[in-house]
Each structure stands twice: as C-alpha cells, then as structure tokens.
Amino acid sequence: MPTQKRPVFSICVPSCNRGRKAWHLVERLLPEMDDDWELLVLDNASHEETEFYDQIRMLAATETRLVYIRHPFNRAFHGNYLASLTTARAPWILLCSDEDWPNLATMRALLPVMRAKNNLGVLRGTVAPNPADQDKAGFIRQDGFFAAGDEALLHYGLTNTYMTGTLYHLALVSEKGLLERLRTGLEANHIYPHLYLELLIASQCDIMTTAAVVATKGEPQRAGSNAGQTARYHSTYSFGNRIDQVVALRDALVEAVNLVRQPFDRDLFLTMYLRLCSHSFWQLLHNSR
Fold first, then answer.
1. What is the spatial distance between Cα 175 and Cα 191, in angstroms, rounded to a whole number?
2. Using CA atoms, how far apart are residues 276 and 285, in angstroms rounded to an integer?
C-alpha cells in the first residue's frame, strides 16, 4: 500500500485504454523519481490493454511512490482530469498524458523556484516535439511572470489547450475554492476543463511560464473504442463542439472577471471575449471536422 507520508510532488497521469503506454511511462519514471515524489496513474475504466494496467496495479502494491486507481466507470476525460486534482496528495502537481515524457531534472530545478512564490498558482513549461516526428511542433513558452488578475488573464488566459507540462500549486488552488468551482462547472467545460480551471486560477493567482523543457511529446495513440460512452457530437473538433466551447468559455470568462474585482470590469471581459472569438473562428476554419 502507498505510504501515508505526504509527498512533496505528484505526477498525475490520466489514462484510458492505453495501458502499454502507461506501463512504459511507469517503468521509465520510477527509477528517476525522488523518494518523496508520487506517481499517480488514473485508469478510466479501461477495457483494452488491461494486462498492462494489471502490471501497474501489482507494482503499486509494493512501490510506495506509485499509486494506481481504477475508476469503476468511464468518467470521460474531464472526469479523470478532476480525479487527478482531487486524488493527488502533494501540494504541487504535474499533469502529463500517458504518451508524453516528463523531464524530471527540470522538475527538480523548478520546485524550489515555485515554492518561493507564495501566490503562484500555475507554472507552464515548454513541451518539446517528439524527436521522431519533428514535423509536428511542440509547445514553446518564453520565461514570464504575470501577476494575478488582469495581467495573468491577458497574458496567459485562453492560451493553454495542451494538458501535459502544466504544474499546479494544488494546495493554493484548493485553498482559494477554485477546485470546488471546477467541480461545479465541469460538465459545461468538458472539452477543455484545464482551460477553464486556469482562467479561474489566473483571476486569483500569479502565473509563470518558462522556456525550460518540462516534457517531451511522445508518439500519439488513439485512445481505443468509446464503448459505453455517449457524445453529442462525433468529435471534439467538430463544428458543433467548437461552437459549444465558445459559449462555455464566454461564461468562464464572466466568472473569472467577476473574481478579479467588483464592480464587473467590462473592458477586461470584452478584451478577453474578443480574443476568444478570434481564436475560436481560427479553429473553426483550420482545425474542425
């Protein structure tokens, strides 16, 4: 069973029907991890590649740094994302897809920097492209620090659509009641729950970005069949979902701007809303299907 001692850092890996990738990630990370770190694998009721999840489960029974959780039903991505945040035991966590590779040396260097900033809610690092597929770009960031409120929303809000490489000050986010807000608004923001949460965080907490590579993209793998799931549209990237996202994120912006100050700052909201519209219409033209 996992140790009761609270870890100082958690790596959270939501996973579904990609047990081979999750197992290879566990095999690679555990030898490099510090003794007071946690590796949390959340299996979203997988029905494919289950033999690899069984290996993770068996190893977790004796490896105190590894925690394996299998949900009794498929919570979809947004439900597994929330479970990552509510299950992790460390004050600081990293979100990572099971197909990507965290850079633990970078984590080690960044942790003291993050701890020194009391109101830091998010640190977003660079995700390097897959060395075997240089045609597909990574997610490059520049070094930056944005104070909570207007500055963090304007310079960081609506920019982070890729989950891997985001570090959260989970203790601070929970203390400010933002996890509970995420829980309440989760279904409306099921496509990009992390984008929603980070808008809320930016309204209340400082944000940092870094050029340091916190992870490398792995080889993508389709998550398998969607048996037992229902969806309004056939794809996350469909026209219908893109339009729904505009409405959901508009409401998220109202909520975030309300948290910044009262009375409601219409200029801040309108600036953010115009950015949302511009980005969304670009996605509709180039990345919808």
1. 25
2. 14
Helix or strand or coil: residue 98?
A: coil
User: Helix or strand or coil: residue 11?
Assistant: strand
Residue with tokens 């979100």: 95
* DSSP label at residue 7: P
∠ CA 285-154-239, rounded to 5°: 20
Cα–Cα dist 169/180, whole Å: 15
CB-based burial, 92-130: b 16+ in 10 Å, e otherwise: bbbbbbbbbbbbbebbeebbeebeeeeebbbbbbbbbeb
ω into 129 cis (within 30 of 0):
no
Distance CA 152, CA 140 (A): 18
Q: Tell me, what's the pLDDT at 284?
A: 67
HSE of 249, CA atoms in CB hemisphere, 13 A: 30
Please classify residue 31 by burial: count the beta carbons closer than 10 Å to its beta carbon, then call 0-12 exposed, 13-18 middle and 19+ buried.
exposed
For residue 127, CA distances in Å to 12, 46, 261 come to 16, 27, 33
Contacts of 61 (CB under 8 A, 6+ apart): 1
Which tens digit of pLDDT belongs to each residue from 190-234?
Answer: 989 999 999 999 999 999 999 999 999 988 776 544 333 334 434
Q: How many angstroms separate the CA atoms of 16 and 74, rounded?
A: 9
Low-confidence spans in the chain with pLDDT less than 70: 1-4, 134-136, 222-242, 283-289
Q: Quick check: helix, strand or coil at residue 48?
A: coil
Q: CA 114 to CA 123: how far, in whole Å?
A: 8
The Cα 33–Cα 159 span in angstroms is 30
